[in-house]
Amino acid sequence: MDRPSGQGRVDASGRATASATGAGRRLVSRSRSIGDVSFGTALEHASGTRVQWATADGLELVGWGETARLTASGPDRFDEIRAQATAAFDGVDHDGPAVARPRAFGGFAFHDGHEPRDPWTGFTAATFVVPSVILARTDEGTWLTAVDTSDDDATRALESWYDRLSDGPAMRSSGTGPGIDDTRRTTSREQWTEGVETALERIADGVLEKVVLAQALEVDLETPLDVPACLERLRRRYPNCYRFLFRDGESGTFFGAPPERLVGKSGTDVRTEALAGSAPRGDSREADEELADRLLDSEKIRREHGIVVDTIRNQLEALAADIRVDERRVKRLATIQHCWTPIEATLEAGHHVLDVVEALHPTPAVGGIPPGAAWETIRDVETFDRGWYAAPIGWFDAGGDGEFAVGIRSGVAREDAVTLFAGNGIVADSDPDDEWDEVVLKYRPILDELRE
Ligand SMILES: C=C(O[C@@H]1C=C(C(=O)O)C=C[C@H]1O)C(=O)O
């Protein structure tokens, strides 16, 4: 398969098959550099599928329209997406720098048996799109890319979008929040306590070691949410988090600012991490340090976190020759701090990033261990539909490189309502009341930005 990396044209070879829009024709991508354009304004005027992806190291991507669509359901969904991706990207012809190359953006539902229902209407068990227009910004500049199925069409689209975007504003205010009318937790305190106690009984019986239980918060807004503006505000407050949005036609917009990388793959280099165990931020430096020390010293957190590290290591062993687990440390975010262990590996050649996604999802940072008992407990006790929450969200390219975050600190926005999601790891000595309070901390990043 051609690998659209480096400057210059990648020669066409082979052909795409029927799984891409423009069936049977290879994708052609043309790019040119463009001055400052407001990504938020570009998305606001776009219709159809819209995506955004941004990383802590300064890469920002937005895309709209679709030149190829990949969807799958059931237990083979990762394989199916990979097969459709191979067909869609086969012989891709990209003229431009690597940063502007065509990418497939999308995600998976947490469960493979996902049945879309409110607020997840329109979200399948796995959907990816290769947008027909992409803006890519790094510290070095901004690139506009048009993706189509012929040189003429891609070049024409590129010029026409260049003119339209160059006429638009270079910046747009990220404004203030839409204001909150009302909030409702979908899980009552009694249901939550019962759920945690069910998990604790299963742990005491020895069938379960750890499970992450989550809940949802329905928020009625005073005015509709401008999601790109909200993500821009989140960038300022949470600079070390990802930011993403995915809107499929008339569906709601799934968006968030997750602190957790599921996987980043470039060639055979893979980066992932264990992020599990949480504490609030302190009011003073001393209080903050003390909370961080307690997080690192706590026996409960050490066990909870260790399960995640060990499981990731085991899951990677089938794919990687060399796995390097870094020191356990604290990752500080504006309103919460986490126990964090970066992990790197060298993959055996020939793997697609989706191989790693499939091997890792769900890590026990959002699922549990053993996986079967954890999934059963989640199904038995949770009172809402996880949909794409806590599941892989990200992108991959024609060469099988890509990056995925864990879709936490996230929500679905529809008109004048947003549903937020948050969960906590439950282990042997978890206390239902403490866990209830900790969940609130995880709603905060987005909830704070919804206030006026
Ligand atoms: C499940 C969430 O967060 C996960 C659970 C954590 C914990 O139990 O301490 C910490 C980080 C995340 O891996 C969430 O934010 O919804």
From TrEMBL:
Belongs to the isochorismate synthase family. It comes from the Archaea. Signal peptide: none annotated. This is isochorismate synthase. Residues 189-442 form the Chorismate-utilising enzyme C-terminal domain. Residues 181-190 have a biased composition (Basic and acidic residues). Keywords: Isomerase. InterPro entries: ADC_synthase, Chorismate_C, IsoChor_synthase. SUPFAM superfamilies: ADC synthase (SSF56322). Residues 13-26 have a biased composition (Low complexity). It holds the Pfam family Chorismate_bind. GO terms for molecular function: isochorismate synthase activity. Residues 1-27, 167-190 are annotated as: Disordered. Its EC number is 5.4.4.2. It catalyses: chorismate = isochorismate. It is an enzyme of class 5 (isomerase). It comes from Natronosalvus rutilus.
